[in-house]
Amino acid sequence: MLEKYKIIITGEMGAGKTTAITTLSDTPLVSTEVKNNDIENTKQSTTVGMDYGSIQINPHIRLLLFGTPGQKRFSFMWDILCRGSLGTIILVKADSPSLYDTLKYFIDFFYKHGSSNIIVGVSHCFEQNAVPVHIIQNYIQQNCIVKNLPVIPCDPRNKESMLLVLKSLVALISADSEV
Amino acid sequence: MKVTQEIFDICKTEVEDLLNKLESSEVINIATSDGFEIFTYDRENKNNNQNFSAMSGSIIALINSLLHDFSFPSSNLLEINVEQGHIILAPVTVMGIDIIVLAKFNHVSSKGEILYYFKEFIEKMKSY
After folding, report:
1. H helices of chain B, where?
2. Which 8-state DSSP code applies to residue B67?
3. What is the pTM of this model?
4. Which of A32, A38, A74 comes nearest B1 by C-beta?
5. Could you report the per-residue pLDDT of B87-97, keeping only the tens digit for each?
C-alpha cells in the first residue's frame, strides 16, 4: 500500500524553499508567490501562503511537500501547515547575517509545534561569507531546544542534493516510528 | 516597504470616504499582497492588524492558486458571511503596487448596500 508522508519545508526568506519543492516535485507545483515589497530583500517574489508539490521516492512512499512562507509575520501559516506533518526540513542560508537567530527561531518553533523529526538543510554553502556546516552543528548543540539534529549541506536547485536531504528525513522518521 | 506616501494618502482618503457612506464598517485593513500593513481603520482598536495584513495576503494567494487550477482568472472579491456580519477581501492594484483590502462590516447596513459601496471603493482605488 502507498504510504503518504506530509513533510514541511521551512526556513527564512530566500533560503530556497520554493526552489527546492520545484526541483523535487513530480507533480505540478501549487504556488502562492506574489511580488516582494520588502526593501531589505532583493528577491522579486515571495511565497505568502504555501507551496505544494509531491514526490514518490520509492514504490511504497509518496512525500507530500508543503513549503511555508519564510517571514515571521506569516507564522500563522506555519502553525496551520505543520499540523499532521511527520517531518520538517529547515532550510537556512550559510551566508545569512541572521543565520544563528534564524536557526534557533525555526528549530524552537517547529519542535514546540510537534515536529520531532527535523533536519537542517544548509544552502548557499559556497558563498563568500558562508559559515561551515560543523560550526552550524555546534551552534545547534549548544543553543537549541533539540541538540542532535542532522545538518546537511544542500543545493535547492539540484535534485540529487535535495533527494539526499529528503531521504535522510524519511530515514529519521522510519527510525523514530520503530522506537 | 516599497509603498509611497502618495499611496498611503490615497488609501486614507478613500477609506474615510467609505466610512462616511457605510456606517457598518468596523475594520478596513489595507496591506500589500505580501503582508505589509499600509493603512488600517479599526473602530474598536482591539485587533492585531499586522496579523490581518499577513492573513489577507495568504488567503487571496491561496484562493488565486485554487482558481488557477480551475483555469479561472484571479479573484475580484471574496466574501465571507458570518452571523455577526460580513468579511470582504479584494485585491486591487494601486499605482503599480498590488494591495489587498480586508474589511469587516456588521449588520447595520444591508448586504446589498455593503457590496455596492465596497465595489465603488475598489473601483476608485483602481482609478489612481
Report:
1. 5-21, 49-69, 111-126
2. H
3. 0.90
4. A38
5. 999 999 999 99
